[in-house]
């Protein structure tokens, strides 16, 4: 069996973490790089990632997370946030990054920039937020897969109050909105969920070839 597939079979949404085990700085940097390298629409990455280590802040976040123990017991809490303003200035900043990275004159990117601006800037705020959120979820998926490869446990969490997270973490002032959370660390031996068989649709039901 392919090693990557085995890693995906190994992972599960960890319900109880061992709060004495921490993800190493080296492995954390690998996970951060996996997130950074994630594909996104136009390559714009309309999100930011908060890595919450402070135990006191995490205690504040727990009641806003339906009381889930992963919030305080996991090694790290990762909050995926969308940018509140994906506008012409945001796109211009991205073009500057392209110019610097690829050694291309910024003038040569004008048409590409205008195309992006014509498609993204006029979007209704709710539509733009939905689009940005989908991009963040791609990054979340990459994190979960990369963590599994490193035999680091994870749990994606949608059960939380974004408004409370935004308030506690001061996200509005940062121009951000929380959209999804992931806890990473190492499973507790007391977590019975790890012994459950993974339930997924059979391939013949999931895939349609036309």
From TrEMBL:
| CDD domains in the cross-refs | NfsB-like
The record's InterPro entries line, in alphabetical order, gives:
NfsB-like, Nitroreductase, Nitroreductase-like
Domain Nitroreductase: where?
8-186
- Keyword vocabulary terms for this entry: Flavoprotein, FMN, NADP, Oxidoreductase
- One Pfam entry for this protein is Nitroreductase
What is the top-level taxon of the source organism? Bacteria
Q: Which cofactor does it need?
A: FMN
GO molecular function terms listed in the Swiss-Prot or TrEMBL record:
oxidoreductase activity
The entry assigns this protein to a family as follows: Belongs to the nitroreductase family.
**Protein name as annotated:** NAD(P)H-dependent oxidoreductase
Could you read off the lineage of the organism from its UniProt record? Bacteria, Pseudomonadati, Bacteroidota, Flavobacteriia, Flavobacteriales
């Amino acid at each position: 069996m392919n090693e990557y597939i085995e890693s995906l079979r190994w992972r599960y949404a960890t319900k109880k973490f061992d709060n004495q085990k921490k993800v190493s700085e080296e492995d954390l940097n690998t996970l951060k790089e996996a997130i950074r390298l994630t594909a996104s629409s136009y390559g714009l990455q309309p999100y930011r990632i908060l890595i919450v280590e402070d135990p006191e802040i995490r205690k504040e976040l727990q009641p806003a997370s339906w009381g889930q123990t992963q919030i305080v017991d996991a090694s790290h809490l990762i909050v995926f946030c969308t940018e509140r303003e994906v506008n012409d200035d945001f796109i211009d900043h991205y073009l500057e990054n392209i110019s610097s990275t690829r050694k291309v004159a910024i003038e040569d990117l004008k048409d590409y920039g205008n195309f992006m601006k014509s498609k993204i800037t006029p979007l209704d705020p709710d539509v733009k937020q939905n689009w940005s959120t989908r991009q963040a979820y791609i990054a979340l998926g990459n994190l979960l897969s990369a963590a599994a490869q490193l035999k680091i446990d994870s749990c994606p969490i949608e059960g939380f109050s974004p408004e409370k997270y935004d308030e506690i973490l001061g996200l509005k002032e940062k121009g951000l909105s929380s959209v999804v959370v992931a806890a990473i660390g190492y499973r507790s031996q007391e977590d019975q969920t790890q012994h459950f068989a993974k339930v997924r649709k059979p391939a013949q039901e999931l895939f349609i070839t036309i």
